[in-house]
Amino acid sequence: MPKRSILSALSFVLICTLASCSSGATSTAELAIQNVTVIDAVNGVREGQTVLVNDGRITAVAPAGDAGDASETVDGTGRYLIPGLWDFHVHLTYDERLTDAMGGLFLNHGITSIRDTGGPLDKVVPAVAALKVEGVTAPRVFFAGPLMDGEHVVYDGVDRPALGIGNPDVETARANMARLADIGVDFIKIYEMVSPEVFAVLVEEAQARGLPMDGHVPLSMRARDVGPHVQSLEHLRNIEMDCAAAPEALLAERQRLLENPDGIPGGTLRSRLHELQRLSSVAAYDEQNCGAVLEAMANTIQVPTLRLNALGLQPPFERSDWGAVLDKLPADVRAEWQAITEASRQGAAQLRDNTFGEWSLHLVGLMHEAGVPIGAGTDTPIGFAAPGYSLHSELEMLVRAGLSPMEALEAATVHPAEFFSLSGEMGTIEVGRVADLVLLSANPLDDITNTRTIEAVVTKGQLLRRAELDALVR
Ligand SMILES: [Zn+2]
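# zinc ion complex -> structure
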Protein backbone atom coordinates (compact mmCIF):
# COMPACT_ATOMS: atom_id res chain seq x y z
CA MET A 1 0.00 0.00 0.00
CA PRO A 2 1.50 3.40 -0.96
CA LYS A 3 2.36 5.67 1.94
CA ARG A 4 -0.35 8.21 1.10
CA SER A 5 -3.09 5.57 1.16
CA ILE A 6 -1.95 4.32 4.55
CA LEU A 7 -2.08 7.88 5.87
CA SER A 8 -5.53 8.51 4.46
CA ALA A 9 -6.75 5.20 5.84
CA LEU A 10 -5.35 6.12 9.23
CA SER A 11 -6.93 9.55 9.15
CA PHE A 12 -10.24 7.97 8.18
CA VAL A 13 -10.06 5.68 11.20
CA LEU A 14 -9.32 8.71 13.35
CA ILE A 15 -12.20 10.76 11.93
CA CYS A 16 -14.41 7.73 12.18
CA THR A 17 -13.63 7.33 15.87
CA LEU A 18 -14.07 11.01 16.65
CA ALA A 19 -17.28 11.47 14.69
CA SER A 20 -18.98 8.22 15.66
CA CYS A 21 -18.08 6.76 12.27
CA SER A 22 -20.59 9.02 10.53
CA SER A 23 -18.69 9.23 7.28
CA GLY A 24 -18.06 5.49 7.16
CA ALA A 25 -21.64 4.50 7.99
CA THR A 26 -23.14 6.91 5.46
CA SER A 27 -22.38 4.82 2.43
CA THR A 28 -24.16 1.73 3.75
CA ALA A 29 -26.98 3.11 5.93
CA GLU A 30 -30.42 1.68 5.33
CA LEU A 31 -32.10 4.70 6.85
CA ALA A 32 -31.15 8.32 7.43
CA ILE A 33 -33.23 10.79 9.43
CA GLN A 34 -31.83 14.21 8.57
CA ASN A 35 -31.72 17.53 10.35
CA VAL A 36 -33.82 16.38 13.28
CA THR A 37 -33.92 17.50 16.92
CA VAL A 38 -32.89 14.45 18.94
CA ILE A 39 -34.28 14.22 22.48
CA ASP A 40 -33.48 11.61 25.09
CA ALA A 41 -33.46 11.66 28.88
CA VAL A 42 -29.73 10.97 29.20
CA ASN A 43 -28.21 13.15 26.47
CA GLY A 44 -30.75 15.97 26.54
CA VAL A 45 -31.62 17.93 23.40
CA ARG A 46 -29.44 17.85 20.28
CA GLU A 47 -30.58 19.99 17.35
CA GLY A 48 -29.82 19.55 13.66
CA GLN A 49 -28.73 15.92 13.85
CA THR A 50 -28.58 13.23 11.22
CA VAL A 51 -29.34 9.79 12.62
CA LEU A 52 -28.28 6.76 10.60
CA VAL A 53 -29.66 3.26 11.06
CA ASN A 54 -28.24 0.03 9.77
CA ASP A 55 -29.06 -3.58 10.53
CA GLY A 56 -31.40 -2.66 13.38
CA ARG A 57 -28.91 -0.42 15.17
CA ILE A 58 -28.18 3.30 15.34
CA THR A 59 -24.86 3.73 13.51
CA ALA A 60 -24.46 7.50 13.68
CA VAL A 61 -25.83 10.53 15.49
CA ALA A 62 -23.97 13.54 14.16
CA PRO A 63 -24.63 17.24 13.58
CA ALA A 64 -25.49 18.28 10.04
CA GLY A 65 -24.53 14.86 8.81
CA ASP A 66 -24.79 13.77 5.22
CA ALA A 67 -27.23 10.99 4.44
CA GLY A 68 -24.92 9.79 1.66
CA ASP A 69 -26.63 7.13 -0.37
CA ALA A 70 -28.86 5.79 2.41
CA SER A 71 -31.59 3.56 0.96
CA GLU A 72 -34.29 5.56 2.69
CA THR A 73 -34.22 9.13 3.96
CA VAL A 74 -36.61 11.03 6.18
CA ASP A 75 -36.54 14.82 6.41
CA GLY A 76 -36.46 15.63 10.11
CA THR A 77 -36.57 19.40 9.66
CA GLY A 78 -38.82 20.89 12.33
CA ARG A 79 -39.36 17.43 13.83
CA TYR A 80 -38.34 15.67 17.04
CA LEU A 81 -36.87 12.21 17.44
CA ILE A 82 -37.31 10.36 20.75
CA PRO A 83 -36.43 6.78 21.72
CA GLY A 84 -39.12 4.16 21.15
CA LEU A 85 -41.55 4.18 24.09
CA TRP A 86 -42.32 1.39 26.52
CA ASP A 87 -45.62 0.47 28.03
CA PHE A 88 -44.20 -1.05 31.20
CA HIS A 89 -47.46 -2.65 32.41
CA VAL A 90 -49.51 -4.61 29.92
CA HIS A 91 -51.63 -7.77 29.93
CA LEU A 92 -51.58 -9.24 26.43
CA THR A 93 -54.11 -11.96 27.22
CA TYR A 94 -56.41 -10.30 29.78
CA ASP A 95 -59.04 -9.81 27.07
CA GLU A 96 -58.31 -12.30 24.33
CA ARG A 97 -60.42 -10.39 21.84
CA LEU A 98 -57.62 -7.79 21.90
CA THR A 99 -54.56 -10.06 21.96
CA ASP A 100 -53.96 -10.28 18.20
CA ALA A 101 -54.56 -6.58 17.65
CA MET A 102 -52.24 -5.39 20.40
CA GLY A 103 -48.88 -5.49 18.61
CA GLY A 104 -50.14 -3.24 15.80
CA LEU A 105 -51.90 -0.88 18.19
CA PHE A 106 -48.76 -0.44 20.28
CA LEU A 107 -46.56 0.37 17.27
CA ASN A 108 -49.25 2.65 15.88
CA HIS A 109 -48.82 4.74 19.06
CA GLY A 110 -45.02 4.70 19.18
CA ILE A 111 -44.67 1.92 21.74
CA THR A 112 -41.83 -0.31 20.59
CA SER A 113 -41.42 -2.36 23.79
CA ILE A 114 -43.88 -3.83 26.24
CA ARG A 115 -43.68 -5.67 29.56
CA ASP A 116 -46.44 -8.21 30.16
CA THR A 117 -46.99 -8.18 33.91
CA GLY A 118 -49.11 -11.28 34.25
CA GLY A 119 -50.99 -13.91 32.34
CA PRO A 120 -51.56 -17.67 32.45
CA LEU A 121 -48.73 -19.57 30.77
CA ASP A 122 -50.98 -21.46 28.33
CA LYS A 123 -52.11 -18.12 26.89
CA VAL A 124 -49.26 -15.71 27.42
CA VAL A 125 -46.49 -17.97 26.08
CA PRO A 126 -48.11 -18.32 22.62
CA ALA A 127 -49.03 -14.62 22.57
CA VAL A 128 -45.42 -13.67 23.29
CA ALA A 129 -44.13 -16.19 20.74
CA ALA A 130 -46.38 -14.67 18.05
CA LEU A 131 -44.82 -11.25 18.64
CA LYS A 132 -41.32 -12.72 18.53
CA VAL A 133 -41.62 -14.52 15.18
CA GLU A 134 -38.58 -13.60 13.08
CA GLY A 135 -39.42 -10.80 10.67
CA VAL A 136 -42.83 -9.97 12.12
CA THR A 137 -43.52 -6.26 12.65
CA ALA A 138 -44.13 -6.13 16.39
CA PRO A 139 -42.90 -4.46 19.56
CA ARG A 140 -40.26 -6.11 21.72
CA VAL A 141 -41.93 -8.09 24.47
CA PHE A 142 -40.86 -9.18 27.95
CA PHE A 143 -43.09 -11.33 30.15
CA ALA A 144 -43.53 -12.67 33.68
CA GLY A 145 -46.01 -15.50 33.23
CA PRO A 146 -48.50 -15.94 36.08
CA LEU A 147 -48.86 -13.72 39.14
CA MET A 148 -47.04 -15.47 41.99
CA ASP A 149 -49.72 -15.38 44.66
CA GLY A 150 -49.94 -16.96 48.12
CA GLU A 151 -52.05 -19.64 49.78
CA HIS A 152 -55.13 -17.77 48.61
CA VAL A 153 -55.07 -16.65 45.01
CA VAL A 154 -56.75 -13.41 43.92
CA TYR A 155 -56.91 -14.17 40.18
CA ASP A 156 -57.98 -17.79 40.70
CA GLY A 157 -60.02 -18.38 37.54
CA VAL A 158 -63.26 -18.58 39.56
CA ASP A 159 -64.64 -15.05 39.74
CA ARG A 160 -61.61 -13.44 38.13
CA PRO A 161 -59.42 -14.52 35.17
CA ALA A 162 -56.85 -17.22 36.07
CA LEU A 163 -53.83 -14.92 36.07
CA GLY A 164 -52.36 -16.16 39.34
CA ILE A 165 -50.89 -19.35 40.78
CA GLY A 166 -50.68 -20.36 44.43
CA ASN A 167 -47.53 -20.48 46.50
CA PRO A 168 -48.92 -21.78 49.82
CA ASP A 169 -45.48 -22.77 51.13
CA VAL A 170 -41.79 -22.34 50.37
CA GLU A 171 -41.43 -25.75 48.69
CA THR A 172 -44.14 -24.91 46.16
CA ALA A 173 -42.59 -21.50 45.65
CA ARG A 174 -39.21 -23.07 44.81
CA ALA A 175 -40.82 -25.55 42.41
CA ASN A 176 -42.82 -22.79 40.68
CA MET A 177 -39.72 -20.65 40.31
CA ALA A 178 -37.79 -23.53 38.73
CA ARG A 179 -40.63 -24.08 36.27
CA LEU A 180 -40.90 -20.41 35.30
CA ALA A 181 -37.15 -20.17 34.81
CA ASP A 182 -37.25 -23.26 32.55
CA ILE A 183 -40.00 -21.68 30.47
CA GLY A 184 -37.83 -18.59 30.02
CA VAL A 185 -39.76 -15.79 31.71
CA ASP A 186 -37.99 -12.42 31.70
CA PHE A 187 -38.95 -11.44 35.26
CA ILE A 188 -41.11 -12.50 38.22
CA LYS A 189 -44.29 -10.81 39.41
CA ILE A 190 -45.11 -11.22 43.11
CA TYR A 191 -48.72 -10.75 44.15
CA GLU A 192 -50.58 -9.54 47.19
CA MET A 193 -51.40 -12.73 49.13
CA VAL A 194 -47.88 -14.16 49.52
CA SER A 195 -46.59 -14.64 53.07
CA PRO A 196 -43.30 -13.05 54.21
CA GLU A 197 -41.68 -16.53 54.19
CA VAL A 198 -42.70 -17.20 50.59
CA PHE A 199 -41.69 -13.66 49.61
CA ALA A 200 -38.17 -14.26 50.97
CA VAL A 201 -37.84 -17.50 49.00
CA LEU A 202 -39.11 -15.92 45.78
CA VAL A 203 -36.55 -13.14 46.15
CA GLU A 204 -33.76 -15.63 46.84
CA GLU A 205 -34.70 -17.83 43.87
CA ALA A 206 -35.03 -14.88 41.51
CA GLN A 207 -31.68 -13.44 42.53
CA ALA A 208 -30.01 -16.81 42.06
CA ARG A 209 -31.37 -16.89 38.49
CA GLY A 210 -30.69 -13.23 37.68
CA LEU A 211 -34.39 -12.52 37.17
CA PRO A 212 -35.63 -9.03 38.06
CA MET A 213 -38.65 -8.88 40.36
CA ASP A 214 -41.83 -6.88 40.04
CA GLY A 215 -44.94 -6.97 42.16
CA HIS A 216 -47.56 -5.51 44.40
CA VAL A 217 -46.64 -4.98 48.04
CA PRO A 218 -47.93 -8.17 49.73
CA LEU A 219 -50.66 -7.46 52.29
CA SER A 220 -48.76 -9.52 54.87
CA MET A 221 -45.83 -7.10 54.74
CA ARG A 222 -44.94 -3.42 54.97
CA ALA A 223 -43.91 -1.51 51.85
CA ARG A 224 -40.59 -0.43 53.43
CA ASP A 225 -39.64 -4.10 53.93
CA VAL A 226 -40.54 -5.02 50.35
CA GLY A 227 -39.08 -2.14 48.32
CA PRO A 228 -35.37 -2.88 48.81
CA HIS A 229 -35.80 -6.50 47.60
CA VAL A 230 -37.61 -5.93 44.30
CA GLN A 231 -36.78 -3.89 41.21
CA SER A 232 -40.25 -2.50 40.52
CA LEU A 233 -43.66 -2.14 42.18
CA GLU A 234 -47.06 -1.55 40.58
CA HIS A 235 -50.02 0.78 41.17
CA LEU A 236 -48.57 2.19 44.44
CA ARG A 237 -50.52 -0.77 45.77
CA ASN A 238 -50.71 -1.04 49.58
CA ILE A 239 -48.03 1.62 50.03
CA GLU A 240 -50.60 3.92 51.67
CA MET A 241 -50.87 1.38 54.52
CA ASP A 242 -47.23 1.95 55.43
CA CYS A 243 -47.45 5.72 54.93
CA ALA A 244 -50.17 6.00 57.59
CA ALA A 245 -49.86 6.58 61.31
CA ALA A 246 -49.36 3.36 63.32
CA PRO A 247 -48.47 1.09 60.39
CA GLU A 248 -47.55 -1.73 62.80
CA ALA A 249 -51.13 -1.92 64.04
CA LEU A 250 -52.46 -1.92 60.50
CA LEU A 251 -50.11 -4.75 59.58
CA ALA A 252 -51.17 -6.78 62.62
CA GLU A 253 -54.81 -6.36 61.65
CA ARG A 254 -54.11 -7.52 58.09
CA GLN A 255 -52.09 -10.51 59.24
CA ARG A 256 -54.92 -11.58 61.53
CA LEU A 257 -57.47 -11.41 58.72
CA LEU A 258 -55.12 -13.18 56.30
CA GLU A 259 -55.30 -16.27 58.51
CA ASN A 260 -58.71 -16.61 56.90
CA PRO A 261 -60.25 -19.41 59.01
CA ASP A 262 -63.48 -19.27 56.98
CA GLY A 263 -61.69 -19.92 53.70
CA ILE A 264 -62.91 -16.76 51.97
CA PRO A 265 -61.81 -16.75 48.29
CA GLY A 266 -58.59 -14.80 47.62
CA GLY A 267 -60.18 -12.04 45.55
CA THR A 268 -62.87 -11.37 48.16
CA LEU A 269 -60.39 -11.40 51.02
CA ARG A 270 -58.13 -8.94 49.24
CA SER A 271 -61.06 -6.59 48.53
CA ARG A 272 -62.03 -6.67 52.20
CA LEU A 273 -58.54 -5.70 53.29
CA HIS A 274 -58.42 -2.87 50.76
CA GLU A 275 -61.82 -1.61 51.88
CA LEU A 276 -60.79 -1.83 55.51
CA GLN A 277 -57.46 -0.02 55.25
CA ARG A 278 -56.98 1.89 51.99
CA LEU A 279 -58.96 5.11 52.40
CA SER A 280 -58.51 5.16 56.18
CA SER A 281 -54.75 4.95 55.63
CA VAL A 282 -54.87 7.82 53.15
CA ALA A 283 -56.77 9.85 55.78
CA ALA A 284 -54.17 8.91 58.42
CA TYR A 285 -51.19 9.90 56.24
CA ASP A 286 -48.06 10.43 58.34
CA GLU A 287 -45.31 12.40 56.65
CA GLN A 288 -42.50 10.92 58.73
CA ASN A 289 -43.61 7.34 58.20
CA CYS A 290 -43.98 7.96 54.51
CA GLY A 291 -40.51 9.48 54.33
CA ALA A 292 -39.06 6.20 55.58
CA VAL A 293 -41.08 4.29 52.98
CA LEU A 294 -39.83 6.52 50.17
CA GLU A 295 -36.26 6.01 51.37
CA ALA A 296 -36.76 2.26 51.07
CA MET A 297 -37.90 2.77 47.46
CA ALA A 298 -34.77 4.66 46.38
CA ASN A 299 -33.82 1.97 43.84
CA THR A 300 -37.24 0.48 43.15
CA ILE A 301 -38.98 1.67 40.00
CA GLN A 302 -42.52 2.71 40.86
CA VAL A 303 -45.08 2.12 38.11
CA PRO A 304 -48.02 4.07 39.50
CA THR A 305 -50.42 3.46 36.57
CA LEU A 306 -51.90 6.87 37.34
CA ARG A 307 -54.29 6.69 34.43
CA LEU A 308 -55.89 3.76 36.22
CA ASN A 309 -55.55 4.89 39.85
CA ALA A 310 -56.90 8.33 38.95
CA LEU A 311 -59.35 7.22 36.26
CA GLY A 312 -62.04 9.49 37.65
CA LEU A 313 -59.80 12.55 37.36
CA GLN A 314 -59.24 12.06 33.64
CA PRO A 315 -61.67 9.51 32.22
CA PRO A 316 -60.47 8.45 28.76
CA PHE A 317 -64.03 8.47 27.44
CA GLU A 318 -64.34 12.19 28.14
CA ARG A 319 -61.53 13.01 25.74
CA SER A 320 -62.47 14.44 22.37
CA ASP A 321 -60.58 11.72 20.48
CA TRP A 322 -62.22 8.78 22.31
CA GLY A 323 -64.40 7.93 19.31
CA ALA A 324 -61.32 7.62 17.11
CA VAL A 325 -59.68 5.46 19.78
CA LEU A 326 -62.62 3.07 19.85
CA ASP A 327 -62.62 2.89 16.05
CA LYS A 328 -59.20 1.25 16.16
CA LEU A 329 -60.39 -1.58 18.45
CA PRO A 330 -61.96 -4.88 17.36
CA ALA A 331 -65.72 -4.44 16.89
CA ASP A 332 -66.85 -6.56 19.84
CA VAL A 333 -64.57 -4.73 22.29
CA ARG A 334 -65.59 -1.39 20.81
CA ALA A 335 -69.29 -2.12 21.33
CA GLU A 336 -68.72 -3.28 24.89
CA TRP A 337 -66.54 -0.33 25.91
CA GLN A 338 -68.96 2.09 24.29
CA ALA A 339 -71.85 0.69 26.30
CA ILE A 340 -69.93 0.70 29.59
CA THR A 341 -68.49 4.17 29.13
CA GLU A 342 -71.94 5.49 28.22
CA ALA A 343 -73.20 4.17 31.55
CA SER A 344 -70.17 5.62 33.35
CA ARG A 345 -70.75 9.01 31.81
CA GLN A 346 -74.14 9.00 33.40
CA GLY A 347 -72.50 8.87 36.79
CA ALA A 348 -71.01 5.65 38.16
CA ALA A 349 -70.24 6.52 41.75
CA GLN A 350 -66.92 4.73 42.13
CA LEU A 351 -65.46 6.60 39.16
CA ARG A 352 -66.34 9.88 40.83
CA ASP A 353 -64.75 9.23 44.21
CA ASN A 354 -61.38 10.75 43.48
CA THR A 355 -59.82 10.41 46.95
CA PHE A 356 -57.51 7.61 45.93
CA GLY A 357 -56.72 9.19 42.56
CA GLU A 358 -55.71 12.43 44.21
CA TRP A 359 -53.67 10.54 46.79
CA SER A 360 -51.91 8.67 43.97
CA LEU A 361 -50.94 11.90 42.23
CA HIS A 362 -49.74 13.33 45.55
CA LEU A 363 -47.66 10.24 46.37
CA VAL A 364 -46.02 10.21 42.94
CA GLY A 365 -45.14 13.86 43.47
CA LEU A 366 -43.51 12.96 46.79
CA MET A 367 -41.69 10.02 45.21
CA HIS A 368 -40.44 12.20 42.41
CA GLU A 369 -39.12 14.79 44.89
CA ALA A 370 -37.42 12.03 46.86
CA GLY A 371 -35.68 10.76 43.71
CA VAL A 372 -37.60 7.47 43.49
CA PRO A 373 -37.42 6.18 39.88
CA ILE A 374 -40.77 6.18 38.08
CA GLY A 375 -41.88 3.87 35.25
CA ALA A 376 -44.66 4.50 32.73
CA GLY A 377 -47.19 1.68 32.56
CA THR A 378 -50.91 1.53 31.91
CA ASP A 379 -52.34 -1.90 32.92
CA THR A 380 -53.66 -2.23 29.35
CA PRO A 381 -56.43 -3.20 28.70
CA ILE A 382 -57.83 -2.90 32.24
CA GLY A 383 -59.93 0.20 33.00
CA PHE A 384 -60.54 1.26 29.37
CA ALA A 385 -56.83 1.25 28.60
CA ALA A 386 -56.78 1.25 24.81
CA PRO A 387 -53.52 -0.46 23.81
CA GLY A 388 -50.91 2.15 22.88
CA TYR A 389 -53.16 5.17 23.25
CA SER A 390 -53.31 4.89 27.03
CA LEU A 391 -49.54 5.24 27.46
CA HIS A 392 -49.80 8.84 26.25
CA SER A 393 -52.47 9.47 28.90
CA GLU A 394 -50.12 8.01 31.50
CA LEU A 395 -47.33 10.38 30.40
CA GLU A 396 -49.73 13.30 30.85
CA MET A 397 -50.66 12.12 34.32
CA LEU A 398 -47.00 11.76 35.31
CA VAL A 399 -46.46 15.40 34.35
CA ARG A 400 -49.58 16.35 36.27
CA ALA A 401 -48.04 14.60 39.32
CA GLY A 402 -44.91 16.76 39.08
CA LEU A 403 -42.51 15.16 36.60
CA SER A 404 -41.08 17.34 33.84
CA PRO A 405 -41.88 16.20 30.29
CA MET A 406 -38.28 14.95 30.00
CA GLU A 407 -38.72 12.94 33.20
CA ALA A 408 -41.95 11.49 31.86
CA LEU A 409 -40.03 10.38 28.76
CA GLU A 410 -37.37 8.91 31.05
CA ALA A 411 -40.11 6.87 32.75
CA ALA A 412 -41.11 5.38 29.39
CA THR A 413 -37.60 4.78 28.02
CA VAL A 414 -34.61 4.80 30.39
CA HIS A 415 -36.09 3.21 33.52
CA PRO A 416 -37.72 0.25 31.77
CA ALA A 417 -34.38 -0.48 30.06
CA GLU A 418 -32.66 -0.32 33.47
CA PHE A 419 -35.11 -2.83 34.94
CA PHE A 420 -33.95 -5.42 32.40
CA SER A 421 -30.27 -4.36 32.62
CA LEU A 422 -30.52 -3.16 29.01
CA SER A 423 -29.29 0.42 29.48
CA GLY A 424 -26.43 -0.20 27.06
CA GLU A 425 -28.88 -1.42 24.44
CA MET A 426 -31.90 0.84 24.52
CA GLY A 427 -33.62 3.83 26.07
CA THR A 428 -31.44 6.52 24.47
CA ILE A 429 -30.49 7.64 20.97
CA GLU A 430 -26.80 6.81 20.70
CA VAL A 431 -24.50 4.91 18.38
CA GLY A 432 -24.81 1.18 19.01
CA ARG A 433 -28.29 1.33 20.59
CA VAL A 434 -31.14 -0.58 18.98
CA ALA A 435 -32.99 1.46 16.37
CA ASP A 436 -36.35 1.92 18.12
CA LEU A 437 -37.36 5.52 17.48
CA VAL A 438 -40.40 7.79 17.28
CA LEU A 439 -40.55 10.87 15.03
CA LEU A 440 -42.84 13.63 16.31
CA SER A 441 -44.08 16.74 14.54
CA ALA A 442 -44.19 18.79 17.76
CA ASN A 443 -41.83 19.17 20.72
CA PRO A 444 -42.76 16.86 23.63
CA LEU A 445 -40.74 19.04 26.03
CA ASP A 446 -43.04 22.01 25.31
CA ASP A 447 -46.10 19.91 26.05
CA ILE A 448 -46.10 16.21 26.87
CA THR A 449 -49.30 15.71 24.84
CA ASN A 450 -47.07 16.23 21.78
CA THR A 451 -45.95 12.59 22.12
CA ARG A 452 -49.21 11.95 20.29
CA THR A 453 -48.00 13.75 17.15
CA ILE A 454 -46.39 10.65 15.68
CA GLU A 455 -45.26 10.92 12.06
CA ALA A 456 -43.17 7.77 11.88
CA VAL A 457 -41.86 4.94 14.04
CA VAL A 458 -38.69 2.92 13.66
CA THR A 459 -39.02 -0.54 15.18
CA LYS A 460 -36.02 -2.89 15.21
CA GLY A 461 -34.56 -0.73 12.42
CA GLN A 462 -37.67 -0.84 10.24
CA LEU A 463 -39.19 2.51 9.25
CA LEU A 464 -42.97 2.78 9.44
CA ARG A 465 -44.38 5.99 8.06
CA ARG A 466 -47.84 7.26 9.03
CA ALA A 467 -49.69 5.30 6.35
CA GLU A 468 -47.88 2.09 7.32
CA LEU A 469 -48.60 2.71 11.00
CA ASP A 470 -52.28 3.14 10.21
CA ALA A 471 -52.27 -0.05 8.14
CA LEU A 472 -51.20 -1.98 11.27
CA VAL A 473 -54.53 -1.16 12.86
CA ARG A 474 -57.68 -2.69 11.55
ZN1 LIG B 1 -51.77 -5.36 35.85
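# post-check
The pocket of zinc ion is lined by residues 89, 91, 117-118, 379 (CB under 6 Å).
The radius of gyration is 24 Å.
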